[in-house]
Amino acid sequence: WPMPSASEGMSRTGNHQMIRSLLSIPSFWQTEARDTIPVHPESDSTLQEGDIVFRRKRSAINCDSSCFWPKSSDGLVKVPVNVSTEFCKLLVYRTWIAEAMQEFTTLTCVQFINRTTETNYISVVPGESCWSHFGKIGGMQQVGLMKTGCMSKGAIQHEMNHALGFLHEQSRSDRDNYVKIMWEYVIAGEQGNFGKVNSNNLGLPYDYSSVMHYGANDFSNTSGKATIVPIPDPSVPIGQREGLSNLDVAKINKLYNCCSNVLHKPNDTFSSVNYPSSYPDNSNCLWLIRIPQHQIFLQFDAFDLQPSPDCTSDYIRVYDGSSRNSSVLLDKLCGMGSLPSLVASRNVMLVEFVSDEATAATGFQASYSQGEDSASFTELGDISNFCLANIHVQN
């Protein structure tokens, strides 16, 4: 969840380093990323709530829209990223980071792109702790990932979410209605990790399952004693790091005015923005249908998109999986008329809708339902583009 404001953190550049892949494939030239960072990464900054960098000279409640990453004319929030060679050279690290970033790309309009010459960007580096600056600070800003403590999809997403402008869920202004802080069990000197702020909660519910929520026993001074107890039901699990929750996704999309959605009911309907009125220009919308089990059957109940040669202007595309790297069930389609039903091979399907700045039509309305299971498949992302400023083939 986002604060209504943020503070800046200092950034710095590091030295260049060339390393050779362990598999004798092309080496990676990584610019402006240090191999290690201290726990408190900036000399004029302080680490708050365990993993957030605020610059001391600015209050954390004096930020405006400049703290958030800008939206492009195509409706996407493009966040340039490069990744340290220390992560790029090992497949397991590349996979974890790729899967974490891919989920943002699939479920929101936030797109992590390969940094080329952009001035403002994120540099993912190894650290002695897990930490991030809060929001966009300007220039190069680091996200530190400890190899032995941060390398899971949810933990990486937690830090990247800080960089997008979100703080910890249990710090939001209404948290006392949902959790009780057991101060007597908090490690001496760590009470600051459990502060509460005057937050902008975006009109969305408190989320026990948020990837931004602390675990029940975090910073406890006594084994087995919780520092955070959900109320009224203390058995509610908190502190998961499996991945973005549905409300995490909703909050990102609302903060950045995205038109992406996660659909998780066994049967549901959805439509383009403003349907049956004309959809807006420069849309880039995604619907991830992710039901508990069985195949997905998709039917377009109404379809009216601006026609163009090869559907280069406005179009629908449907993927048999959870990302744009999945197999295509329906390639770029536009115009008007009825469409056949589409069937996914498993329990996930991605629907993409793109419009340009020219004439718009009424859009579409679709419905889906669950069917029987079929063979499943596994997708594997890659972060090669984030790792490579240049590729140098070793002779």
UniProtKB/TrEMBL annotation:
Single GO BP term: proteolysis
Domain CUB: 259-371
Cofactor info, note text: Binds 1 zinc ion per subunit.
Residues given in the record as Zn(2+) binding sites: H158, H162, H168
Ranges for domain Peptidase M12A: 59-260
GO cellular component, one term: cortical granule
Localization, UniProt: Cytoplasmic vesicle, Secretory vesicle, Cortical granule
Predominant cellular place of this UniProt entry's protein: cytoplasm
Top-level taxon in the UniProt lineage: Eukaryota
This protein's name: Metalloendopeptidase
Gene source species: Chelydra serpentina
Lineage: Eukaryota, Metazoa, Chordata, Craniata, Vertebrata
